[in-house]
Design brief:
By secondary structure, the chain is α+β, with helices and mostly antiparallel strands. The protein contains 3 helices and 3 strands. Helix content is 41%, strand content 18%. α1 runs antiparallel to α2. It is elongated and about 100 Å long. It starts with 34 loop residues before the first helix and ends with a strand. The relative contact order is 0.14.
């Protein structure tokens, strides 16, 4: 009872609680069943391409960090007066997960170094793209270069 007025039971102003909507009628009644499948078919290839691209970026970042560490170790060894072959061997050892034949290593100026001269060690690697779909975006390989310059003490 509200203010002395008694309301009749039944649907409220918003259609009543607990009622289910009436079933759809007409030619579109059964056509919504495959809508989710169509949307998934449209979105899934793009989603997979993004995920594969993220994995490829992670692989490239890992390879770049390996090259940077190898170049640093090579430059550090070069400042001690090591030979070029010792520097190349050290870089190959640090970058063990990259095939040595795929690395391009340059040391300039060539050892032996003089006191307080700078040495630059550059390591270049063409990272092959692991997934064919990503290769269409970046090409067959991703060129990575790391360079470190140090002063001989």
């Amino acid at each position: 009872m509200l203010g002395g007025i008694r309301r009749a039971p039944g649907p409220g102003p918003f259609g009543g609680a607990g009622k289910t909507p009436a079933p759809r009628r007409g030619p579109w009644a059964h056509r919504e069943g495959g809508q989710a499948a169509v949307e998934l078919a449209l979105v899934l290839p793009a989603l997979i391409l993004v995920l594969v691209g993220l994995v490829q970026v992670g692989v490239a970042l890992s390879a770049y960090l390996t090259l940077q560490t190898a170049a640093y170790e090579g430059a550090r060894l070069a400042t001690t007066g090591a030979t070029t072959s010792a520097i190349v061997s050290r870089i190959d050892a640090v970058a063990a997960d990259i095939p040595p034949s795929a690395l391009n290593i340059s040391v300039s100026p060539a050892p032996p170094l003089t006191y307080q001269s700078n040495v630059t060690v550059s390591v270049t690697y063409d990272l092959p793209v692991a997934f064919g779909a990503v290769a269409h975006l970046w090409g067959a390989s991703i060129p990575l270069t790391a360079s470190v310059t140090m002063e001989m003490d």
